[in-house]
Specification:
The complex is a heterotrimer. Chain A is mostly helical. Chain A has helices at about 15-40, 45-70, 75-95, 105-125, 130-150, 150-155, 180-200, 205-215, 215-220, 225-250, 260-275, 280-300, 305-320, 320-330, 330-335, 345-370, 390-430; strands at about 160, 255, 380, 385-390. In chain A, a hairpin with a 2-residue loop joins strand 3 (about 380) and strand 4 (about 385-390). The longest helix of chain A has about 40 residues, at about 390-430. In chain C, helix 3 (about 95-105) packs across helix 4 (about 120-135). Chain C starts with a strand and ends with a helix. The chains are: A mainly alpha, B mainly alpha, C alpha/beta. Chains in contact: A-B, A-C.
Chain lengths: ~425, ~325, ~250
């Protein structure tokens, strides 16, 4: 994914090889969207892929703000949720009046709803950047979420508003009843939205968004009003969030207050940041990881959200570029062929690191078992190995793994740093820079 | 009517002073370190839960001292091992760290104490009506809360005006860039400020716990209001935080006690029109919209005065 | 003929402190004008006032005869004034090429366009390439600005400033912190790039000032005490006493 970076080199310097890499990356992405549900054919995996698709559009829209323009929002779900609600009302109106609008066009209703609210709310929100913007987005998020419980006729109170997607006119014989058809609807919009959002980064406005992110003061002295740039960026983010919300409404056939809430805003922030804000594909990666974690972890442990928080804190502290940056920092090593210099250090470090992680997990699970009052009968299964929560040997194992693992891991990571420096130096000598 | 006004004013000032216990720490931390501590309300929650647990073990009065100290220690550890590490990645990363922390603290509290409200009772010593206005008994415990927050308020003023650290903090409030010139002990000052700020939040938690609800969602409920307070007051302005705390405390308390709606003033709508957005707006009572009033205030203030009521800073 | 910049009775106060008082400055079109003065005299504040970074408390500032005091920086920039910064102020995470290109966009009429591919704008591309060539950074075009050497960043700073084609260029200590050879290079660069434009420069290096400027204004305690050709300034007793004298201590 050579050129999918937020600051891709300009094409005057791009060689044919680079262009091939660029189109190959997009080709693989589209192929994956088309083929994955044909490879994994179970209904459960189709549901999972649908959720990932929605989350990916939502996270990409969020990254227009965070990664491209440097705006940290705590209330992006407002546009997602309003898009969802408008889409549900739109679908019900289409069904009730027999309008000739097939389902695949419904996401546009959500998109324009998100855009409209972005236009109205954005002007005030984007007057200032940084911390103030973050607080305002939080306040407006709370305002809309609370209002949704008051304006019951539109938002349907706690229950929400339901709809039936099969009541809309069929298109090419597709009535969008089966999950696979809904998935392809989502996949279609994912590809369209991803291309549109990538294209946006390559426009004069997209470039100036980056400039505002890097240095809003200087932008003023090259003729641009940073407020207007932030505002336009905000409107676009609202538009694509609305599309994602509408797709969610189509998928679940319901829109409720949770769509607009702080939790939803938090999840998209988690997904985008964990995936990585400085590469275009980062949020897609994050959407995959976070959706899978939500689905898988919640089956295994009752305190899965705590792990979620710990992973997020770990990323913020040790890899603020997210998973995408962790991957991409190896690119010069791969190109220069010096990746092998660092692999042994990785292999050594991974053992104590995993042991440390196991220790932490054991500790948390023991605590969870005790505070839920069922420690005596509770067995923790860690990689299929059973541990009894009430057994002192388990406590000892947890303590040894956590403390011992921490110190040994810290030592081995120093080795990784040293190996990294050697590999990087060698790569530079061969003419490959970061 | 007069009764309502007196009681609501008392309750409003009380809520406002509690808010100020939190927003003062938040403001000082923000001014010194440039970090908006998203987890500030979580330290308030930790204060309430530590207070509850310690009250069960050793009684309320020791808990009132010990719980804030413990929470302050946690805060100092967060500054030392978390924020300092993240500082090099910029303020957004620091804000995100505290955001993740708020999330994690809520999960830990849920894991240990569950999701149900705690049975955190007013200490027997203070479990009597302080005085009776008209027909309402005003509890002594609420007067005690007011007293504690006023005492801390005065103590803060004295510390700010009379001590060396206070002078540094004051200077930082007006000239944030000077903090960089503090030299080698800047780390220790930061840790101290963060510790004291979080301990103050914990004091608010310990004393508010028995009067309000001690539950794992209390941080998520109070947090956003707290941020409204400091944005409305003007980021980095201590007098602004004080003024906005009282304003929002009174606003919410008065709104909750009012049952008026457009329907009660202008009469009900013609029932034949059916349910619509208009009927929603027409029939909603002021008490019902009390939770959104702080946010409405936020939006209004931002339109009229983007830097906040008493803010002077552009960023 | 109208002057490029005129400041009339400009005053700037922060609270009760008057940084600038009764400042009068005239810069003719096409001239190279240097502002000198001891540290804290208000040189940077004067720059900030003209470029709209801060608004004057009272007084008038005009650009090519049009009143600009109170306008926002981007409005002033669009009227043909561009400035550089004393502390390097570039877009650190973006490449050298992108830094210059951003500075070219408004001037080539792209505004906030979100329907054009920025890479397919021949005019933008040509001008960006030209500026890069001018500031000798073509070989560094794909390096993020934050990774350039200090001297290169200063050159990029000048490049961003002139890229928009403004007819009034203001440079705030462009050679600060440079070695002698680097300074010579930078001066030659400035001389060449501001050919036919108006230049206002703040500089501490007297050899640069007297070598480059057509006229010099001396600013002391927020007040212009003298304004004239380099010879006039050199011979002015007030200047010697207030400024040049201090230098020798």
């Amino acid at each position: 994914m050579t050129e999918l970076t937020s600051s891709a080199p300009s094409p005057t310097g791009s060689t044919p090889a680079r262009n091939i890499g660029f189109y190959a990356a997009w080709g693989i992405f589209i192929l994956a969207v088309v083929l994955l549900p044909l490879i994994f054919r179970s209904g459960g995996s189709h549901t999972t892929f649908s959720l990932i698709g929605i989350a990916a559009i939502f996270a990409l829209s969020y990254n227009i703000l965070l990664g491209q323009t440097g705006l940290l929002s705590f209330g992006h779900a407002v546009y997602y949720g309003l898009g969802g609600f408008l889409a549900v009302h739109g679908m019900n109106a289409i069904a009730a009046h027999g309008l000739p609008v097939p389902l695949p066009f419904v996401p546009l209703i959500g998109g324009f709803a998100g855009l409209m609210f972005g236009i109205v709310i954005g002007w005030v929100s984007t007057q200032r950047a940084g911390t103030v913007f973050a607080m305002i987005s939080l306040g407006i998020g709370e305002l809309v979420a609370s209002s949704s419980l008051i304006l019951r006729s539109f938002f349907g109170g706690e229950a929400g508003i339901t709809t039936n997607r099969t009541d809309l006119p069929a298109l090419f014989g597709w009535n969008f009843g089966p999950q696979i058809q809904v998935y392809y609807l989502i996949g279609f919009w994912l590809v369209i939205s991803a291309i549109a959002m990538y294209a946006l980064t390559r426009t004069p406005l997209g470039r100036m968004c980056n400039a505002v992110r890097d240095n809003p003061e200087r932008v003023q002295f090259i003729g641009y009003d940073p407020h207007v740039i932030r505002y336009l960026s905000f409107c676009f983010a609202g538009f694509f969030a609305g599309i994602a919300g509408a797709l969610a409404a189509i998928n679940f056939e319901i829109a409720n207050a949770a769509y607009l809430g702080a939790v939803q805003s938090g999840v998209v922030l988690f997904a985008t940041f964990i995936g990585g804000v400085s590469y275009f594909f980062g949020p897609i990666l994050g959407a995959i990881v976070v959706t899978m974690l939500q689905l898988e972890l919640s089956d295994v442990t009752t305190v899965w959200q705590l792990y979620f928080g710990i992973i997020f804190i770990g990323i913020v502290m040790f890899a603020p570029g997210g998973l995408a940056s962790l991957l991409m920092m190896h690119r010069p090593l791969v190109r220069a062929g010096t990746l092998s210099m660092i692999l042994p250090a990785y292999l050594i470090a991974i053992v104590p690191t995993l042991l440390f992680a196991c220790g932490v997990i054991l500790t948390i699970e023991i605590l969870a078992a005790y505070s839920q009052g069922n420690a005596a009968s509770s067995t923790i299964r860690l990689f299929r190995i059973p541990f009894e929560a009430a057994n002192p040997m388990t406590w000892l194992a947890a303590a040894v793994l956590t403390i011992g693992g921490f110190f040994v891991a810290r030592m081995t990571w120093r080795g990784v740093t040293a190996a990294w420096d050697r590999a990087m130096t060698a790569a530079r000598e061969r003419g490959y820079h970061a | 009517m007069l009764e309502l006004i007196v009681i609501s004013t008392l309750n409003g000032v009380l809520f406002g002073m509690l808010l100020f216990l939190l927003s003062s720490g938040l403001t000082v931390i923000f001014s010194m370190m440039g970090v908006l501590n998203f987890a500030h309300a979580s330290f308030y929650m930790l204060g309430a839960f530590f207070g509850y647990q310690l009250t069960r073990w050793i009684g309320f009065w020791p808990a009132l001292i010990l719980a804030p100290l413990l929470v302050g220690a946690v805060g100092m550890a967060v500054e030392r091992y978390g924020l300092r590490q993240t500082h090099k990645h910029g303020h957004v990363a620091e804000l995100l760290l505290t955001f993740g922390l708020a999330f994690a603290i809520e999960q830990v509290v849920q894991m240990i104490w569950g999701k149900l409200p705690m049975d955190y009772r007013v200490p027997e010593l203070l479990d009597f009506p302080a005085f009776t206005i008209f027909s309402t008994n005003y509890p002594a415990y609420k007067m005690f809360m007011l007293l504690v927050s006023v005492v801390i308020f005065i103590a803060l003023l004295v510390v700010l005006k009379r001590t060396r650290v206070g002078l540094i903090v004051q200077a930082a409030l007006t000239h944030p860039s000077m903090v960089a010139h503090l030299g080698h002990n800047v780390g220790r000052v930061f840790m101290l400020v963060f510790g004291v700020g979080t301990a103050l939040a914990a004091v608010a938690g310990v004393i508010a716990g028995p009067a309000l609800v001690t539950q794992s969602d209390m941080a998520a409920l109070l947090g956003p209001i707290l941020f409204v307070v400091i944005v409305v007051g003007g980021l980095g302005s201590l007098p602004g935080a004080f003024f906005a705390s009282l304003l929002i405390g009174l606003l919410q308390t008065f709104a909750v006690s009012m049952n008026g709606s457009l329907a009660s003033v202008f009469g009900p709508l013609d029932p034949s029109t059916g349910a619509s957005l208009l009927t929603d707006v027409w029939n909603v009572t002021i008490a019902q919209i009390a939770p959104i009033l702080p946010y409405v205030l936020l939006v209004l203030v931002l339109i009229v005065r983007p830097m906040g009521l008493m803010g002077t800073r552009e960023t | 003929m109208t002057n490029a910049i005129e400041m009339r009775a400009v005053e700037k106060a922060f609270g009760n402190v008057r940084i600038i008082q009764d400042l009068n400055l005239t810069v003719a079109k096409g001239e190279r004008h240097a502002i000198i003065g001891p540290n804290g005299a208000g040189k940077s504040t004067t720059f900030n006032l003209i470029s709209g970074h801060i608004a004057p408390t009272s007084g008038d500032i005009t650009l090519n005869g049009e009143r600009i005091s109170g306008l926002r920086p981007f409005e002033i920039n669009r009227r043909g004034l561009s400035r550089s910064f004393q502390v390097t102020n570039v877009f650190a995470k973006m490449t050298v090429w992108e830094n210059i290109r951003c500075a070219v966009l408004w001037a080539t009429g792209q505004r906030y366009a979100f329907w054009k591919n920025v890479d397919n704008l021949p005019e933008v591309r040509r001008r960006t390439a030209e500026i890069l060539e001018d500031i000798h950074l073509t070989h560094r075009r794909d390096v993020p600005a934050g990774l350039l050497t200090y001297a290169e960043q200063r050159e990029l700073e000048i490049g961003i400033t002139i890229a928009g084609g403004a007819n009034v260029i203001m440079l705030d200590e462009p050679t600060a912190g440079m070695s002698n050879t680097e300074t010579d290079r930078a001066v030659a660069l400035i001389r060449r790039l501001t050919e036919g434009r108006t230049l206002v420069i703040v500089e501490h290096d007297m050899s640069v000032v007297f070598g480059l400027a057509d006229r010099i204004s001396v600013l002391v305690y927020g007040n212009i005490i003298a304004s004239g050709t380099p010879e006039e300034i050199r011979g002015n007793p007030k200047v010697k006493e207030a400024y040049l004298g201090e230098e020798e201590h």
